[in-house]
Amino acid sequence: MTAVIGKVQDTRVKIPVLSARGLVKTFGRVIGLDGVDLDLHAGEVLAIIGDNGAGKSTMIKCLTGALVPDAGELMLENEPVTFRRPQDARAAGIETVYQTLAVAPALDIASNLYLGREERRPGILGSVFRMLDHGGMRRRAAGAVRDLGIQTIQNIQQPVETLSGGQRQAVAVARAAAFGSKVVVLDEPTAALGVKESNQVLELIKGLRQRGLPVILISHNMPHVWDVADRIHIQRLGRCAGVITPASHTMSEGVAIMTGAATLEDDSPLD
Fold this sequence. Notes:
Layout: E1 3-5, E2 18-27, E3 30-40, E4 45-49, H1 56-63, E5 71-76, E6 79-81, H2 86-91, E7 94-97, H3 109-113, H4 124-127, H5 134-147, H6 165-179, E8 183-187, H7 195-210, E9 215-218, H8 222-228, E10 231-236, E11 239-244, H9 251-259, E12 262-264
Parallel strand pairs: 1-12, 4-9, 4-10, 7-8, 8-9
Antiparallel strand pairs: 2-3, 2-5, 5-6, 10-11
Helix pairs in contact: 6-7
């Protein structure tokens, strides 16, 4: 018998920074998303949880331009948007840190932060001779790392291949924070990290929230989710099984909803 868990009530009326309505994505006969809604508000961490095959990755790819939904609508700051490729989402201010990190190990930290966004020197040296502003990029990269409170990185010119897993994750998060003016998406940021390094990444996520930057966190680690999330979007079988908060539901209740052992009283997600 499936238990029924009460749904927390929320009377807030806020315009989301990023919202999705009725997202549908199919792969032949396989349904990846089946009419999913999502809202992300300013200065919050929205966690997305679900079993393998629940549609978490498909939804994130639709939100960040890696996939184009078959149906549905995306709104960024109350304006409709269409992302045909990841570059479109990045240009709109949405940065994504994937589990694979996508860092260049042979390059230093500053070069990784500006990878694909290299800046030229001012004046004729940049416009005519196309010289890169290495000094300026190093200074701004150091400022981005410092603003996030990352204390484990001392030398901004250090090659990424010499960093620990947690430090590499910090570099990826710093890059996202530096250029993600609207939204930062983190895909399993602590999956391959130890306890100490995971805690450092969680502190980075809290720091982004304190700066007012909304974060979407995809994670299988339930203690981490209940530690940092403001709201938790639960995916199940391609649909949203409900949106809860760490204050309204226990970790066990969240897992029960995720696995289908329990359902919310009201099937409509919490906005």
